[in-house]
Amino acid sequence: MRVDIAKGILEKNDSLAEENRRVFAENGVFVVDLMASPGAGKTSTILATIAALRDRYRIAVIEGDIASRVDAEKISAHGIPAVQINTGGACHLESDMIRRAVAALDLAELDLLIIENVGNLVCPTDFDLGENAKVMILSVPEGHDKPQKYPNIFQVAEAVILNKYDTLAYFDFDEADFRGVVTKLNPTAPVFPMSATKGEGVDAWAEWLAARIDAARTGESA
Amino acid sequence: MHEMGICDGILSASFDAASAKGAACINSIDVTIGELTEIQEEALQFAFSVLTKESIAEDSVLNITILPARSRCADCSAEFGHGRFDATCPECGSYLCELLEGRELRIDAIDID
Question: Taking CB atoms and an 8 Å cut-off, how many pairs form between chains A and B?
């Protein structure tokens, strides 16, 4: 006997993500999901973003890693609330992990929640967490060919940060080729060259993010 | 890379539907996967063979339909099929296109006894 199901395979994840989205909106919290390879500079980008925006917005961070509290401790040292999720081997965050992590935060006292996904260019792309925007970071040493090798992550991201831009002279990184492929994959995504640890180029990214946060508040976009 | 988790989602929905009908066994499960997802067909079949062991789906077949990507041009409204890298409107050359199909992860139906 044939039984029709016609359901999303990730329906449980997606419905919990929608619930997260509703809770975030109710509390006026803008949520950004940062995705990148291990070592691309996700935590450094978060620290630079905090430095640029902490006077304007109340910020908290959820750190996703397979193991350790290293990243959450780095964030907490700057006086920013940080919750560490250890996925215990899982290659990406899921919406239920976010729901449980958020319980440790006072959402009513927040404007911006930054989620650092597990370092991986593949798996995080298929999972909605309830965020307002997914953003991906590529670092110069990883090579300009990554959009060709991992197209999906460049397609789901609303903005692309090109980190470690200060090292451009030392690597065989063809910026024009990189930008050309990113534009083909995702014509509307801005590319922000940045050196997170040196603070160069952070302002353009921070202003883009601030504009998105303010637009979400005034209801221009969700 | 996350086919085990995806397969777990397929099986939990299938087991729920099968037990609601009082099924003794599941013969087959039909799913549709969009070409632009990060799902690899062989890895999904492998996960399925592992996760169905000692269950009512142990002897079942996983039928995977891969759905090609389709988009609509935001400039001229033409609809067209494409791969990962060539989502360019064949009519007017615009890159601004809205994806219509290609990111599906769907369980269509099961066959039970």
Answer: 90
For A6, other C-beta atoms within 10 Å of its C-beta total 9
Tens of pLDDT, residue by residue over B9-43, are 899 999 999 999 999 999 999 999 999 888 999 99
CA distance A61 to A43: 10
Q: Which single residue is written with the structure tokens 């219509």? A: B100
* Element of type H or E holding B82: strand B79-82
- Residue A149 in contact with partner chain B when CB distance is under 8 A: no
Task: Name the pairing type of β-strands B69-73 and B97-101.
Answer: antiparallel
B74 touches chain A (CB under 8 A): no
For residue A17 the two structure tokens come to 């993500």
Closest residue, chain A, to B6 (C-alpha) = A9
Report d(CA A8, CA B90) in Å as an integer: 31
Name the percent of chain A lying above pLDDT 70: 99
B60-99: b or e for each residue (b if 16 or more CB lie within 10 Å)?
bebeeeebebbbebeeeeeebebeeeebbbeeeeebebee
The verdict on a CB contact (< 8 Å) between B38 and A152 is yes
- For tokens 């939990």, the residue is B12
ipTM, two decimals: 0.84
What is this structure's pTM? 0.88
8 Å CB contact between A173 and A150:
no
Q: Comparing C-alpha atoms, which of B36, B85, B46 is closest to residue A180?
A: B85
Q: Name every residue whose Cβ is closer than 8 Å to that of residue B27 and which is 6 or more positions away in sequence.
A: B59, B60, B61, B111, B112, B113
User: CA distances (Å), B27 to each of B31, B34, B49, in order?
Assistant: 14, 23, 13
Task: Answer yes or no: do A91 and B108 touch at CB < 8 A.
Answer: no
Q: Helix, strand or coil for residue A138?
A: strand
